[in-house]
Every structure is written in C-alpha cells, then in structure tokens.
C-alpha cells in the first residue's frame, strides 16, 4: 500500500515529521517497507522543449529531435511515438543515471546520427511501468528547471505492508485513523457527502444473486470528461498509477483513499437496466484490460439487456467504458462476496485493485457514503447533475457485541493500563463501548473476541512498552526421548548418514496420490494453488521422487534425500501422521581404485530405516520383518518392519519400476518410510547406564550350511538360531546365499556364521558340539536341512 506524505496529511492533522510517522506506523503493525524519495534520484533531470522533430534518415521508427534545454539547442535521437515539436519533455543530459535501467547517459551515435541526451518515459524514471512514450509535461513548465517541482516529486512516497486482516488500511484514510489513535495527530472529517438529487434515474438495478447483498447506483448527466486536475494526477502517478481520465481517476482515488472500489459506466452505452446475477457457463466479457474472458457459473456478472458488461468487484467491460466523449455516467458502489471475488480472480488470473480489496472485505457501512463522496467529486470536477440514489438490496448485518474485561490486557498482554486509557484507545479505533461490552466498527471485520481487542490495545499502546519478565521456575519431570526431541535426533542421524534434507509441498496431484494409496476424496483441495497440487499427500515419497526426477534431468543422478513431515490418510485430525522418509538413487559406491562401484539397492534403504529406528530407541534386528509392503514398492525387493507383525513401523526397498516410469526415472531408486507416531516411546530407566559386560574368554565361530525353501525369510532363520542357545550365542549372520547347480529347484543354500562365547569360562569341545546340536534342531524345526 503506497501513499504520499501530503496525501496522508489530507486526512491527518499532524505536525509529526516523516521519521516519526514511519516509526509509528511500524510500531502499530503497519510495517514500513520503504520510503521512496523521487526528488533525490530525479533532481538532475530537467524540463526541455522539442523545437523540431524530423524522421531519422536511417531508421523508420526513430526521430531526430532538436531540443531546447534552456541553455541552447541540442540534438537527441528518440524512438517514442509521441515525440513531436512543441511539447515539453523530461531530458537526461550526459552523466545522468537512468533509475529505470541503471544506464548512464553518454554522447553517442545512433544509426550514424549523433545523440546528446535522452528524452525519458515514466518507466525509465522508475515512476511507473509505462514505457510506451515519453512524458509530456505541462505547457507552463519552465525550460531548464528540474522536473522535481514540475511533477510534484518533492513529496515522499511511503510504502507499507498490509497483513490480510487489515483491509481497513488499504485506504489512506484508514492509515490516518490508526495514526490518530496512536496519538500522532487528529483524524480529519471525510470529504463533503451532501447529495442533491436533480432528476429520477431511468436506469434501475435488480439483484439476482446473494453474492451481491447491496448495490447503490447514481445516474449523472451533463458531465465533461477529460484529463483530471494536476493534484489528482500527481497523487496517482506518485504511487505508480497512470492517469486515464477524470472519471476513472476519481474511482482510483476513492479506492486508494477510502478503500472503496467503485466503477463508472458510460450510461449512454448501457442497454436497459442493470442486473447483477450469477454468470452462465461460456458467457464472454471483453474486459477493460483488452482481454476476452470466458465466464463460468458462480461468477458475479453485472449485466444490461445486451449481456455481461462487467465482473462485479473484479473488472469492467469495454462495451460500457468511459471515454473523453462520455457525457453521462452510471456510478456503481456495491458489496460483493469475498470468496466469490477471490475464486473469480484466481480462475481468470485477473489481478485488480478492486479484487484485492473486495476479497479481503470492504466496509459494509461505507457503501452509501462512498457513493456520495464520489458523486460530489464528479460534479465538482466534471460538472453535471446527479439523480437520486438507486439502492438495491440492503446493508448486511455486521454488528456484533464482545464481552470485554479490561483486566485481560494485563493477563494476556503483560502490560498494565488503566481502564480509562484502554477505553480511549478502543474509542479512537472506532469501537463503541457500553459497560463491559464492546462493538467493533464496521471496517474491522477481523475483531471477534477479547483476545482481538487486547491485541488492538497493545498495538496502539506499542509493543515496545511491554517490560520483559522472567518466567517462573518450573519443575519438569524428565521423559525419555519426547517426540520433538526424537524428530531432531532422526534428522541429525539421517544427515550423518550422508542424506540431504528437503522440504517439499504438502500437496500432490490426484494421480500421484492414488499411486501412493491416497484414495480419500476428502483430501482433495477446493482451491488448489496449482492444478497438479490439488490433493494432500498420503506419503512423503512423491515429493522425494519428484526431486530425484528433476535432479536426474539435470545430470545429478546420484542422490540421497530425506524429509520429515506430515502425511494424510483422511481429513480428520487423527488422519494426520508424522513420517520420516528418504530415497537413494544412482551409485552407492562411486568408481574408485580400492573397490568396484555399486548401485544402490534395497539393503541401503533398509540400513537407513534401521538408523531411524535405532535413533528412536528400538533394536531393529529384534523386530518383525515380512513382505507385506504396499504396491509402490518392488514386491520381491522390499520389506515391512513391524512390532510383532501387527503395528507397522515402516517400509523399505526398491520403488516399483512402474512408479519410476511415471516420474520419468530410468535408474534404480530405493526408499524407506517410517511412521514416527507408531514408534513407542522408550521406557524411562533412570539416569544410570546399564553395566557393560565384556568377556575375557575366547570366542568361537562355527559355520553352518542349510538348505531352505527359496521363500524362507532370512530374519526368521536368524531369530530361530539365536533362540537355540541364548546363553552362549553372541551373534548370527548370513554370509552366503546360493541357488543353482547342486541345489534342488525351489530351494536355496544359506551359509550362516554363529559366534559362541561364555562370559565366565573358555568353552569346551563338548559345549560347542552341544550348542551346534541345538542350532541344527532349531533349524530343522523351521524346515531347514543341513547341506551335505
């Protein structure tokens, strides 16, 4: 939101300096982003007059101008279409830096013709985005003088950031009201709103949609449209708007002064009466931005007998637009549904100052006053006579009462203020106070409860007056690895394993959601930010795989990425789950002179998953592992880890080739998913660490080769052998798996290494043989046979 200092002082009677005003604005929540002082940058630019403009001998679109700069005549080559003899223009001489593009003017030759300077457009001066032609200065501008005074640029421009809830400060008057409440001056009364009706309008208004609860129109005849007065043009130019005509400039002035968007129709071009209704599918509108739009049902269409002449609250149409020839107008001041306005603007990709304000909510009680102020300005600046107010609909009910205890300011805000001071602040902000009840003003639709009122008091009393206070000392019972700490530890552990954390969108396309089990329609967004981000993600893997795809397309196929975030099963709070997931692609070991290169495989993903579970306090080898994996994993190269086969903790393995194909990934990609909420918190065991038991006696290794069914799970075999002799068996590992010649079809040979060790003695041969016998019995019970 931009405005000039003088524009603010039109509505705020204050002697405060610019620094005091900007400091106060930031202190009360209207953060000043920048103060633009055009005078400093544009002081070197001077007024000049084109004495002669002739075609360039070597370029059709260029003209050679003889320019009077107050000291003499200089030659300047110019490509602007409006460069002609007799007009006064902005001249940049040698050594002057152009704000719009950073170039420094030098004497040069353009197509073999000497050029000494530059005639500038508003865009080149950084005053607006308009670079279609050079600036034409008033005829009374003095040649040779700086343009700062001529263009009124000695007035600083203040740019403030407006939060979405402060629609009331999208007008200068609202900003002045806040500053007055903060004690920085007195708010002036609004412009004269006295309205005199001279005739009965022949144009009626009919409302056929609840999205427009109130429409006020005024028919004005005998107007003389043309360029607006200099004071109005200066205000609009200062904030980057291009003056168009008096009628249009008045509506822009009302938008930026009072936050009250208006629209003027050329009444002579209207066919019959005005009807505000819901648009029909495929209706067309040729808009004022010279684009044609195809409307859809639900959009607010302002129509006459010929069809749609405007999109309510968004943009008007060219068929009824005003021009210098306009002699009678119909003024529109209306209320429109914010959600409908936002949906229409987003669907049609139309960004307008009216849409920006309507979708945030305009003052419902200012419609009539805004119309009367605009009518008074039109009659004052364009002459003419006005009809009575044509009122369709009614002002919606906005009044609401809030029970307010002034002690809440101290208990919630930490600052002690007297009741009288609190009442004064709220009153200056427009609230009506009766006993312990507060009624917020019509322009503050964001105030709904006591906390909001406390925030308003704190804002105006200034947050920097709140004294810091130490929190009381609390006795907190220690817990073992709370969830927040667990997530931090998991993040650090995965990073330590060489993985890079990413943060992807919490949305995916419907197609991707279905690939990863997301079939719940309640997770489809009503207003997605993008067509391919219209569903809440059921897994973190789509975002990770998409990142891998983008990197692979740019030549980075060797990746190790992870993400920690929420996934969604349904739209209920219970359907939101915390997950950690990661992917690896490309080479696990790069080509080197020590060992052969190796691509990633499912065991890399298993190791990552084990690292997460170990960090959370579990012992992964003791957990249940099976092949009950979802469809997005390779069915034979993946696994599930669970608590006893009942509570799923996570999945790991290769991603299914069809999934990778849909993401346009050609190489192997492995991944894992961990459901952090499903991992039980470890039991608190006090501060003492368990006693470290180390045997001083020699360990013995024995190898066994068993023939097993080809579908036998390695984890089941290891667990069976570990349980055969719990006192002596220290570790069990598989070091070879073989299937082929010498082994029956449907079978595989598994070689296992078992480490035996006692803590209090050296094992005898008889004890070792006895342990081996128990191992073979356990293997036989599992269906294994000793390989001969």
Largest sheet: 7 strands, mixed
- How far from one another are the termini? 86 Å
Cα radius of gyration in angstroms: 38 Å
User: How big a fraction of the residues is strand?
Assistant: 25-35%
Describe the global form. elongated
Helical segment tally? 20
Judged by helices, strands and strand pairing, the structural class is alpha+beta
Number of strands: 42
> Helix proportion of residues, in percent?
10-25%
Strand order of the largest sheet: 28-31-32-38-37-36-35
List unreliable stretches of 5+ residues. none
Integer average pLDDT: 91
Would you kindly provide a brief summary of this structure?
By secondary structure, the chain is of the alpha+beta class.
Write the layout of secondary structure elements.
Layout: E1 2-4, H1 5-9, E2 12-13, H2 18-27, E3 32-36, H3 38-42, E4 46-56, E5 59-68, E6 73-78, E7 88-92, E8 108-110, E9 113-115, E10 118-119, H4 147-150, E11 157-160, H5 172-181, E12 186-187, E13 205-207, E14 214-221, H6 230-238, H7 246-258, E15 263-266, E16 274-278, E17 284-286, E18 292-294, E19 300-304, E20 307-311, E21 315-316, E22 328-335, H8 338-348, H9 353-358, H10 367-382, E23 385-386, E24 390-393, E25 402-403, H11 408-413, H12 419-428, E26 432-434, E27 437-439, H13 450-461, H14 483-496, E28 500-501, E29 507-508, H15 510-515, E30 535-536, H16 541-553, E31 559-568, E32 576-585, E33 587-589, E34 598-599, H17 602-615, E35 624-626, E36 633-643, E37 647-655, H18 657-662, E38 669-675, E39 700-709, H19 714-722, E40 729-738, E41 747-756, H20 765-781, E42 785-786
Parallel strand pairs: 13-16, 28-31
Antiparallel strand pairs: 1-11, 2-12, 3-11, 4-5, 4-7, 5-6, 7-10, 8-9, 14-22, 14-23, 14-24, 15-22, 16-19, 17-18, 19-20, 20-21, 25-27, 26-27, 29-30, 31-32, 32-38, 33-34, 35-36, 36-37, 37-38, 39-41, 39-42, 40-41
Helix pairs in contact: 5-12, 6-7, 7-10, 14-17, 19-20
């Amino acid at each position: 939101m931009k405005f000039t200092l003088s524009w603010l002082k039109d509505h705020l009677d204050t002697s405060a300096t610019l620094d005091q005003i900007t400091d106060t604005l930031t202190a009360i929540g209207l953060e000043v982003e920048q103060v633009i002082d055009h005078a400093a940058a544009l002081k070197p630019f001077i007024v000049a007059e084109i004495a002669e403009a002739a075609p360039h001998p070597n370029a059709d679109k260029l003209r050679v101008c003889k320019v009077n700069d107050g000291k003499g005549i200089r030659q300047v080559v110019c490509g602007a279409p409006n460069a002609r003899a007799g007009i006064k223009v902005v001249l940049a001489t040698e050594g002057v830096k152009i704000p719009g593009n950073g170039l420094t003017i030098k004497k040069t030759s353009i197509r073999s013709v000497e050029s000494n300077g530059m005639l500038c457009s508003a865009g080149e001066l950084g005053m607006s985005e308009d670079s279609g032609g050079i600036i034409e200065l008033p005829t009374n501008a003095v040649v040779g003088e700086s343009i700062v005074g001529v263009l009124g640029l000695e007035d600083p421009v203040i740019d403030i950031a407006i939060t979405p809830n402060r629609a009331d400060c999208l007008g200068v008057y609202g900003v002045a009201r806040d500053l007055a409440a903060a004690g920085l001056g007195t708010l002036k009364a609004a412009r004269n709103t006295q309205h005199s009706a001279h005739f009965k309008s022949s144009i009626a208004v009919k409302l056929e949609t609840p999205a427009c609860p109130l429409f006020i129109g005024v028919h004005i005849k005998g107007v003389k449209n043309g360029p607006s007065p200099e004071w109005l043009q200066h205000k609009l130019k200062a904030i980057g708007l291009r003056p168009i005509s008096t009628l249009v400039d008045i509506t822009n002035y009302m938008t930026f002064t009072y936050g009250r968007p208006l629209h003027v129709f050329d009444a002579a071009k209207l066919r019959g009466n005005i009807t505000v209704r819901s648009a029909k599918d495929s209706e067309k509108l040729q808009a004022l931005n010279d684009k044609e739009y195809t409307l859809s049902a639900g959009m607010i269409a302002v129509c006459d007998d010929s069809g749609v002449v405007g999109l309510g609250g968004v943009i008007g149409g060219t068929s009824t637009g005003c021009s210098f020839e306009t002699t009678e107008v119909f003024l529109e001041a209306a209320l429109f549904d914010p959600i409908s306005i936002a949906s229409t603007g987003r669907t049609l990709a139309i960004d307008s100052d009216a849409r920006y304000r309507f979708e945030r909510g305009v003052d419902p009680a200012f419609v009539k006053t805004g119309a009367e102020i605009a009518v008074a300005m039109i009659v004052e600046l364009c002459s003419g006579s006005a009809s009575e107010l044509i009122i369709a609909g009614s002002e919606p009910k906005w009044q609401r009462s809030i029970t307010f205890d002034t002690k809440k300011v101290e208990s919630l805000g930490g600052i002690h203020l007297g009741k009288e001071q609190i009442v004064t602040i709220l009153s200056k902000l427009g609230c009506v106070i009766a006993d312990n009840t507060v009624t917020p003003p019509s322009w503050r639709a964001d105030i709904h409860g006591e906390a909001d009122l406390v925030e308003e008091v704190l804002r105006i009393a200034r947050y920097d007056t709140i004294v810091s206070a130490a929190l009381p000392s609390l006795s907190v019972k220690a817990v073992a690895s709370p969830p927040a700490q667990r997530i931090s530890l998991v993040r650090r552990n995965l990073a330590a394993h060489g993985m890079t954390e990413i943060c992807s969108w919490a949305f995916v396309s419907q197609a991707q959601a279905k690939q990863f089990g997301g079939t719940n329609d309640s997770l489809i967004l009503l207003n997605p930010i993008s067509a391919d981000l219209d569903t809440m993600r059921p897994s973190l893997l789509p975002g990770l795989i998409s990142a891998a795809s983008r990197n692979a397309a740019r030549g980075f196929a060797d990746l190790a990425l992870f993400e920690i975030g929420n996934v969604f099963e349904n739209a209920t709070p219970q359907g939101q789950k915390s997950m950690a997931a990661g992917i690896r692609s490309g080479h696990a070991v790069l080509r080197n002179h020590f060992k052969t290169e190796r691509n990633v495989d499912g065991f890399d993903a298993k190791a990552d998953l084990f690292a997460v579970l170990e960090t959370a306090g579990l012992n992964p080898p003791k957990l249940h592992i099976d092949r009950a994996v979802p469809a997005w994993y390779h069915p034979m190269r993946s696994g599930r880890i669970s608590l006893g086969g009942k509570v799923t903790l996570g999945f790991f393995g290769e991603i299914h080739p069809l999934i990778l194909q849909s993401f346009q990934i050609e190489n192997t990609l492995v991944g894992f998913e961990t459901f952090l909420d499903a991992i039980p918190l470890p039991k608190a065991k006090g501060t003492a660490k368990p006693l470290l038991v180390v045997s001083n006696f020699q360990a013995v290794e024995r190898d066994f080769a068993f023939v097993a069914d080809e579908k036998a799970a390695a984890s089941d075999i290891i667990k069976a052998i570990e349980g055969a002799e719990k006192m002596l068996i220290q570790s069990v590992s598989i070091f070879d798996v073989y299937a082929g010649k010498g082994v029956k079809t449907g079978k595989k040979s598994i070689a296992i290494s078992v480490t035996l060790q006692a803590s209090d003695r050296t094992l005898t041969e008889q004890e070792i043989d006895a342990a081996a016998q128990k191992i073979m019995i356990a293997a036989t019970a599992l269906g294994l046979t000793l390989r001969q």
